[in-house]
Design brief:
15 helices, mainly alpha
């Protein structure tokens, strides 16, 4: 496997470094808009509920899902269920760390794979049991929260990684999806034990803004989940806990900045596109809103804004067009970069990240499918047995050697949500999801 230890900083740590450079100063006037009392005006309507995929597009998504599930099956340990953070598709190197976030996506992948017949039911259930048993009995945790990176066979903490709040939340989403899908008493028992062990009250002991994590060396990390991002899943899970629930006021504590681009307004962050995707892989916000926003429509608008931003960048990087766009935190020729926009963040160089469009499939189905068709048909070097490589740059003829679990995972889950809404429908049946959204004030409209 290629040398990738420098990339083991969390996306949030990398993003913090980028933001510290002042690249976002043109949008500084938006900082006054901390408290938003009205829904941002959606300028784009999503067709996810009514979209009829062509046979060709449905086959592409089927091939993509099958390949993505193969990643989680082969890169997940048959003994522990822990899924490797990334894999070099050109080597047979058996090393590498597992990540709890990739494992959360992997548990959901087992549900999709079993549902679609890609994985025999008995094999999928056996892997689910192995994973949940390991999470409950063996994987080191602190107050129920798990270390970001671990040895996939022993569970030993790797790289002095933090006990991660958001990565634990991604893992828990996978745990709850398995409980609801497989509906076996033993699965339910283990899932409940794992979820109810998580002490959200410890994480919020002296603050309504949750910390990014904790280490035994320094205690709580100073960074807080304080503005709109993938944090929604974490706050909602915490509020949905019956054992150690978060207080309701935590939902109102984080900031909702209003951005405007090309006449379109939306809640966003100085962050890559993935912040609009991850929570919505499991939580179904369609037709629901809290007192601030309809977050699904908000992500529709944010994705359209990003599409237009990339097309505008086509004047500088001619590979970007309506057929090929999408920049979010990813590998690059120079290493891992937390890039995106608007405003332009990071050293954008014409690199294309398939998970930018793939992770937004339900938000802009026609526009994102156009991108995936382009990549599949015109750039064969970007396709592997595990689906798309993490990133590639047509201008430099550079193609990543790796696929990354969380990026492969977000494409897989959003593809299935676009096709059948399976992940949404399954996860939203859980009492934890329903309770969290009710306590946050969500209602249908």
């Amino acid at each position: 496997m290629t040398h990738w230890e420098p990339n083991l900083l969390s996306r949030r740590q990398l993003l913090g470094q980028v933001l510290g450079t002042g690249l976002c100063l043109p949008f500084a006037e938006l900082l006054a808009a901390w408290d938003i009392q009205a829904q941002p005006t959606p300028s784009v309507n999503s067709a996810v509920a009514a979209l009829s995929l062509s046979a060709e597009d449905d086959q592409l998504l089927n091939d993509l899902e099958k390949a993505s599930i193969l990643f989680f099956w082969e890169q997940g340990s048959s003994n522990t269920g822990m899924v490797k953070d990334r894999c070099n598709v050109h080597t047979n190197n058996q090393g590498g760390a597992a990540s709890i976030a990739a494992t959360g996506f992997g548990l959901t992948a087992l549900c999709i794979g079993e549902q679609r017949g890609f994985i025999p039911s008995a094999d999928a259930l056996e892997r689910v049991f192995a994973t949940l048993r390991f999470l409950w009995k063996k994987l080191p945790n602190h107050r129920g929260f798990f270390y970001h990176f671990a040895n996939p066979e022993t569970g030993e903490r790797m790289f002095d990684s933090e006990v991660s709040s958001v990565d634990t939340a991604i893992l828990l989403c996978g745990v709850l999806t398995c409980r609801e899908h497989f509906r076996r008493p033993a699965v339910a028992q283990l899932a409940n034990l794992i979820f109810n062990r998580v002490d959200w009250s410890w994480l919020s002991e002296d603050t309504s803004l949750l910390t990014h994590g904790w280490t035994p060396e320094v205690g709580f990390l100073s960074s807080r989940w304080d503005y709109y991002s993938e944090l929604m899943m974490m706050y909602l899970l915490g509020m949905g806990s019956s054992a150690y629930p978060l207080a309701q006021e935590t939902w109102n504590a984080w900031k909702r900045l209003i951005f405007e681009y090309d006449g379109m307004r939306y809640i966003g962050s100085f962050a890559p596109l993935f912040v609009h995707q991850f929570s919505q892989a499991w939580f179904d916000f369609r037709g629901r809103r809290d007192k601030y926003a309809d977050y699904f429509q908000n992500s529709v608008t944010a994705t359209e804004v990003h599409r237009r931003f990339c097309i505008e960048l086509g004047k500088q990087f001619p590979d970007y067009s309506e057929d090929l766009w999408g920049i979010t935190a990813s590998d690059s020729e120079q290493g891992y970069v937390a890039w995106g926009g608007p405003p332009a963040t990071g050293p954008i160089d014409g690199t294309v990240v398939p998970s930018a469009a793939g992770g937004s499939l339900p938000f802009l189905p026609e526009a994102t499918m156009r991108v995936l068709r382009t990549i599949r048909n015109r750039y064969p070097a970007a396709w592997t047995k595990y689906g798309f490589v993490n990133a590639f740059n047509p201008l430099k003829n550079w193609y990543d050697t790796d696929v990354i679990g969380i990026d492969t995972g977000i494409i897989l889950l959003m593809a299935e949500n676009l096709r059948t809404r399976f992940v949404w429908d399954t996860f939203m049946k859980t009492p934890e999801a329903q309770r969290g959204m009710a306590r946050a004030g969500f209602h249908k409209y």
